[in-house]
């Protein structure tokens, strides 16, 4: 009975926010969760989102249930944004797009599809990866294993290892890839490396499965950040892509995203969509409407769309400035000769510092700086004003 249930451990990412909240020290910093903050370290609602919400209010739209697959206008623009509106796959109706509960919910729908239609097939996950990936496939009862990704020696991509592990996996495995701004390392393959990864995946008849949670946050450009997905799509292979609008539109709590399944015919796409709906119905019945309307209004309107791009460049730019300042502070303080330039090479919201678990504990226990125990810090939660303090904390944790 309930008495027999044991206490679950705190979540490695969201649990950090809870610990941060409980800390009463004024110097505290939350660099755990990947959520954008202003220079004043306040949450940020994009102006373009406020405009879209005002439009929605003015229109006086109702709150009726959405269809199981979500808001049609959202599903259209989300595929356009990802694949490019001129992509022939869209005209040929080869993509099954279903609205999901942000990135996690969309990944979970796809995981259920894999469990049901590819029994025993394995998902290959990068080592390391976003902590929730393993949870999602575990809960969906999809077996997974890891492929090499991060090389601590170079603080870069272990490309040879990655390719070798993908090659070695049983034919027809699903290869989970981060579309851009790899979480937690901030290290992406180069365009040339992407081509080679696509070659191996095709050779082995694997199915690429992209998680796109940071479109626009890696380079500041929505199109450039979709290049990896489009490269695979252009090869005519089957493909899964989960999308999230939590970060790029700051719609964290709206839980808005989508799963896209690229098929080789319109017929197959229609069948896949019908099955995704069947999976979604007992999970969440039908998805929430508010975030879907916001995205549809912004991406579907040229003026708002351009305003979004400007705001996103501003957010990405702020993170880049913080990245530079942190690098400068660390380089100035560190007399050991350690090369910190890897921080500048990493992209997106995060920096993978190389701090160990014990060093991360020192960061929070002594310095009140909260970060995930894998050594990841969210630069989106850092201000220019706090870079010196953070650099002091890192120096102390590294060298003592
Ligand atoms: C993160 O990695 O910090 C975000 O994706 C938030 C989350 O849900 O874990």
TrEMBL record:
> What domain of life?
Eukaryota
Keyword set includes Cytoplasm: no
Q: Which cofactor does it need?
A: pyridoxal 5'-phosphate
Substrates-to-products reaction catalysed: L-aspartate + 2-oxoglutarate = oxaloacetate + L-glutamate
* GO molecular function terms noted in the UniProt entry: L-aspartate:2-oxoglutarate aminotransferase activity; pyridoxal phosphate binding
Q: What family does this chain come from, according to its entry?
A: Belongs to the class-I pyridoxal-phosphate-dependent aminotransferase family.
What more the UniProt record tells us is:
In eukaryotes there are cytoplasmic, mitochondrial and chloroplastic isozymes.
Question: This chain belongs to which protein, by name?
Answer: Aspartate aminotransferase
Which span of the entire protein is present here? 78 to 477 of 490
């Amino acid at each position: 009975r309930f008495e027999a249930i044991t206490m679950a451990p705190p979540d490695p990412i969201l649990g950090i926010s809870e610990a941060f909240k409980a800390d009463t020290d004024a110097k505290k910093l939350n660099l755990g969760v990947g959520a954008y903050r202003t220079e004043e370290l306040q949450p940020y609602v994009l102006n373009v989102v406020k405009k879209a919400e005002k439009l929605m209010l003015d229109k006086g739209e109702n709150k009726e249930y959405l269809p199981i697959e979500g808001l049609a206008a959202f599903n259209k623009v989300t595929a356009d944004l990802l694949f490019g509106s001129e992509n022939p796959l869209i005209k040929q109706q080869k993509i099954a797009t279903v609205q999901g509960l942000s990135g996690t919910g969309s990944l979970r729908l796809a995981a259920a599809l894999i469990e049901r239609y590819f029994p025993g097939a394995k998902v290959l996950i990068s080592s390391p990866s976003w902590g929730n990936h393993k949870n999602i496939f575990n809960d969906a009862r999809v077996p997974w294993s890891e492929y090499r990704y991060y090389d601590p020696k170079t603080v870069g991509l272990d490309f040879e290892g990655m390719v070798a592990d993908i090659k070695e996996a049983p034919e027809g495995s699903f290869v989970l890839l981060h579309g851009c701004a790899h979480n937690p390392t901030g290290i992406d393959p180069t365009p040339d490396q992407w081509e080679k990864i696509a070659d191996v995946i095709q050779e082995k008849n694997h199915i690429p499965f992209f998680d796109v949670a940071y479109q626009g946050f890696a380079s500041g450009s929505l199109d450039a950040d979709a290049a990896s997905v489009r490269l695979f799509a252009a090869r005519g292979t089957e493909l899964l892509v989960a999308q999230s609008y939590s970060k790029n539109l700051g719609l964290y709590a709206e839980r808005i995203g989508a799963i896209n399944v690229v098929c080789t015919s319109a017929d197959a796409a229609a069948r896949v969509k019908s099955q995704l709906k069947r999976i979604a119905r007992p999970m969440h019945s039908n998805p929430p409407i508010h975030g879907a309307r916001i995205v549809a209004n912004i991406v579907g309107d040229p003026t708002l769309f351009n305003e979004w791009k400007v705001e996103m460049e501003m957010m990405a730019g702020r993170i880049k400035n913080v990245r530079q300042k942190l690098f400068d502070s660390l380089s100035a303080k560190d007399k050991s000769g350690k090369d910190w330039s890897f921080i500048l090479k990493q992209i997106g919201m995060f920096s993978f510092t190389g701090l160990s678990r014990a060093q991360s504990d020192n960061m929070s226990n002594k310095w009140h700086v909260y970060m995930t125990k894998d050594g990841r810090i969210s630069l989106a939660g850092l201000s220019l004003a706090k870079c010196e303090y953070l650099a002091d904390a890192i120096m102390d944790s590294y060298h003592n």
